[in-house]
Design a protein that fits this description.
By secondary structure, the protein is of the alpha/beta class. Helix 1 runs antiparallel to helix 2 and helix 9 runs parallel beside helix 11. The longest helix has 14 residues. It starts with a strand and ends with a helix. 48% of the residues are buried.
Amino acid sequence: MPRLLFADDQGRVYDHPELLAAARSGDRVVRPRERPVALPAGASLCLLPGRRPVGVDPASGALVVLDQVRVGRRRIVPHAVGATLPPGYTRTLLPAAARPPLATLSATPVLPQWAYTAAGLGAGGPVVFALRTDRRLHWDPRRHSTPDLPGRVEALCATGNPIYRQLARCALEWRCFTAQNTFYRRDEGAIPSSASCNAACVGCLSEQDEGMPPPSHERIVRPPSADEMADLAVRHLAHATGRVMVSFGQGCEGEPLLRWKEIERAIRRIRSETRRGSIHLNTNGSLPEALGRLCDAGLDSVRISLNSASPDLYQAYYRPRGYGLADVLRSVRMARRKGAYVALNLLTFPGVTDRAGEVERLRRLVAGADVDQIQTRPLAIDPDVYMEIARTRGGGGPPLGVPALIRALRRARPGLVIGNFSRARLERPPPARADRARAGARP
């Protein structure tokens, strides 16, 4: 087992000479049973301010809250340490952390929206409790944020299309890889399309309630026109290399289906000028008929986000306005009937998503709705905030573990793809092979 990590007030990280790393699953702090992996390239250790580290006494197996620790001649009050992961990994456990008794909000602030992962120190260096769930190297962090990126941004911004100005901020300030791809002219390019949303997700990355940490992105202010969206898309599809696609619906915007009429016009114009590449949509799936219109116009791929197949847990997290989980499931079926490649963006949270009841509901959804792909996306939120939502909602039963969740989903439908990234057209199975796989599926 790896050793416990902790940090001082300046963020310097230390390993404890005796205690082993503990981890968290839902509300439970546990001694990890699974094997961790080495801290991946692009991952970072992070401090959890105001939270006390929790370790395991190797002699007794008891959990120990570390309130004070001696470092050299100093005695410090330590902070818990976790990790954030690069794309392509799915966490399996949360950092073990305890709030001090009678803690005030200033002492234990709400954590910013990152997917905090359990970490420790192994024999060869830092380790994390996670799975490598997508090995596609075109999302490697080392291929992004290169020295030539600012020049590429300036060149495309000079074309006058205002979407590039939003994407410039995404690429340079927030280091969004999809936005950067638009300037690198490769793989998946981004088309932010909507300034408003019909949900108020608790973990929204572009808009937050008062008293919550500031969002990690700023939402686009002026929604672009159909011609502006089409111009950007045609340019990207014509010149991009690699796994060529464009996607509506980004982290810096609201819900694209609210602008389905403009997106429909944009897609029709795109396909009148080029047949190259894939046209993809990231959405909450709130408007099934609108999604069907986009598929008729030429949309060939859709990724629909959800945190649960349980209506009460879905409602509590997404806080939807004018729709519900039933509409989302109708959108999944609508897209399948229209021939689109359908992925679910499953926001995973150890100790909740892997509960026995949740796993069974997700399994039935995947099998019954004929889903092509599950993208396991670690939910970026303060664990305590999410547990306030999820503690009494959703499917019950003991947590089975994230690896068991993934195995159950794989068994739900033959040919199901598990990964973290959208698949371009050339990466999808041929229709005949996909149809044979679906024909063998049993709910």
